[in-house]
């Protein structure tokens, strides 16, 4: 017979301790109380349990049990040190009990002046769970921004006493918005949950990972050898998050940019550390993404300059600071111009000419590339319609322009507005267009081809799956990237790759253009490998719109002579 069943299975008559008999008036009300109440005698055995307590411990009869035995009989935890505070003279002590079914009880035990003890237990499960949910991101189950901040305060206070360094690591997902836009929020949410699982797989005990909102995450890393630990974790995150995901039967590729700030070097309070980690993250994104950067002095100044440039770029189109220039493309066999590439330029009123390699990625990042791209397309088509020879004009199309689903409408409108035949427009895309949701992009490319426009794959060779793209879509032209043309005469490996691409294009019925030809030696090598169309500073620098007709007329006169 167990201790907890001795009153249930015996005829022993419960004798009330005289010292507890004074509780009788109160005991009459105890059965009606919502809280579970136990009265214990001076030997700390349960003498009375109200209805709520009997229900709580059913089927075990609490009467006659010691508390450790009662709790053990129902798999409860947290009640083994109930009387510790009482034994050292505390009149009242509270503790939490966890039941085997997941419920949580806040219990209070206090001594009675007449002898014995009273133990009250309130079910606080819902309150605790709600409090936990308030600290959690509802989508991923990670900590939220609020709890991250409070935990960082605690870690910084503790680190100040031990002179330990604490790292705050910011992570932003690269190309996540593209997935969300292309596949919808349910797919985006599913992807975020998978990303959260990968975070959990790499953090160590004591680290805290939180979702700050959207596709931004942060980690607090303390009690580690720094900066080595932060470096190792950041490198691991860039690698792991950048691996392919399977979501709803589709394979998705995103990346991670990481910024790191370290206390006490980069700040002593949460706000400063968060700000500096964000600055480091911004630098990682500016440096090409899929990398990590530590905060450095001067980043704040550069950030202010960057943000000022963003604001200026947003208004550059309206203020007519942008212009379009045209770089000729030559057939090196005939010596004739076979087309022009339209290139956008920005003349800043204070900083002067700003390189396209600087402002084009910025325009893509802040979303104004769609408006700028549409303007360049309209401008180029209008200019080409007035040229004395019907040579085509090539216009670059950003991957961002494909995501809104209006690129076909934009092209049709530009051609109609200018009165330019479709065959005289060439649209240059990079492999970035085809990275995600390839089927939809291929459908859009087919619709663009139906307008009569030619489709060229630009910067060919710089991506990782060019050959698969050639199999999926019949491009009209391949533009071989400058990286394969530079010093072509001095590098056998480049010549081999260049020649292979030219031969492949010939087999597939595609024209090739060598980009960035800048020396006679490069030109000779390009000619030797069978490429007939070139573009670069050697054969012609970009010229203003007004100079194009003169150049074409001069070529026309030569042909007539």
List keywords for this structure.
Alpha-Beta Plaits, TIM Barrel, Beta-Lactamase, alpha/beta, 561 residues, 42% helix
Architecture blueprint of SSEs:
Blueprint (H helix, E strand, L loop, with lengths): L23 H4 L8 E5 L5 E4 L1 H7 L9 H7 L10 H4 L4 E7 L5 E8 L5 E7 L1 H10 L10 H18 L3 E9 L1 H8 L1 H18 L5 E6 L2 E6 L6 H14 L3 E3 L2 E3 L2 E9 L6 H17 L5 E3 L4 H18 L5 E10 L5 E12 L3 E3 L1 H11 L2 H17 L7 E4 L2 H5 L3 H12 L6 E5 L8 H13 L3 E7 L5 H7 L4 E4 L1 H4 L6 H17 L2 E5 L4 H9 L4 E3 L7 E2 L3 H13 L1
Parallel strand pairs: 11-12, 14-16, 16-17, 17-18, 18-19, 19-20, 20-21
Antiparallel strand pairs: 1-2, 1-5, 3-4, 4-5, 6-8, 6-11, 7-8, 9-10, 13-14, 13-21, 13-22, 14-15
Plain-language structure description:
Helix content is 42%, strand content 22%. The chain is α/β, with parallel strands linked by helices. The protein has three domains: 3-128, Beta-Lactamase; 135-297, Alpha-Beta Plaits (2-Layer Sandwich); 313-560, TIM Barrel, CATH 3.20.20. It has an eight-stranded mixed barrel with strand order 13-14-16-17-18-19-20-21, surrounded by four helices. A five-stranded antiparallel beta sheet has the order 2-1-5-4-3. A five-stranded mixed beta sheet has the order 7-8-6-11-12, sandwiched between helices.
Give me the CATH fold name of the largest domain: TIM Barrel
DSSP strand tally: 22
Spatial strand arrangement across the major sheet: 13-14-16-17-18-19-20-21
Q: Estimate the global geometry from the Cα principal axes.
A: elongated
